[in-house]
Amino acid sequence: MRTLPVAPIQVLLIDCQRILLAGLALLLQSDARFVVCGMATNQNEALVLIGQHQPDVIVLDLDLGEQNGLYLIPEFHSKCQSKMLVLTSNKNLALHDQAIITGARGIVNKDELPTTLFTAIEKVYRGELWLNRDATARILLGVAKAHAPKGTSAEDKLMASLTKKENQIMQAVVASTGKHLKTIADELFISQHTLRNHLASIYEKLGVANRLELYVFFSAQNLVK
Asked: Which range, of 88-97, 99-108, 175-184, averages the lowest pLDDT?
C-alpha cells in the first residue's frame, strides 16, 4: 500500500502558458499527496512565490518564452531548498542533460501519463533522481570527458569560427537570458535587427536553433573547460 507523506507535498508550477498551468494545478490537486502552493509564468512571479511559500518541489518548463528555464534552476537553488523537476515537450537530450547538471532532479516529458508526473514529484521530493538509464549514462560520460585531457574538440572549432563581434554578442545574450532582445540590443548599442542578424549567423555556425540551445552549447563548453 502506498504511504502518504505526513503533510501534502507543496508544489510550485512554472510555465509561460496560463491555461496549461491551470490544467496542471487541477490535475495535481486531484491527488491527496499534492497541494499547488502557486503558479508562475516568469522568473519574477516565481521568486515572489518561492519567498512566500518555500515549496517542496518546483515543476518548471525550460521554455518560458523570452526566459530560459535552465538559467533559472541555479537561481532558484540560491533562494530555496526546493527540489526541481523539469516538465517539458522539448526532445533535445542535450538540453535535458544540461538541466540535470545545473541542478534539476529529473525530467518528465509532457506527453507522458499524469501518473508518471505524480510519481516523479514524489520521488524527487524524497531525494531521488528521476532519470532513465540512458540519461544517467550520458551524464556520467559527459562528466568523465570533462575531466579527461583536453585537445581541440569539434565544439572548440565551432567557437573559433565566430568573429570577435559574434563572440561578444553570444556572451551578452547568454548572460542576459531573462531579457528581451530589444533590451540586449540597447545595451550593446545596436539595433534589434542587427542583433537578430548576428544571432542568425551565430546559430548557423554553432549548429543551434535558438537562444535556449545556444545557452546549452555555451554552458556545456564552460563545464568542460
From this structure: 175-184
Query: End-to-end distance of the chain based on CA atoms, in angstroms?
Result: 48
Cell 487541477, residue?
Answer: 26
3-class SS of residue 11: strand
Residue with cell 516565481: 46
| Nearest CA among 74, 96, 76, 41 for reference residue 212 | 96
Residues 212, 132 share a domain: no
Domain that holds residue 185: 154-224
Residue at a domain's end among 112, 144, 176: 144
- Among 41, 32, 204, 44, residue whose Cα is nearest residue 118: 32
The answer to whether residue 124 is domain-embedded is yes
Average pLDDT over residues 195-210: 89
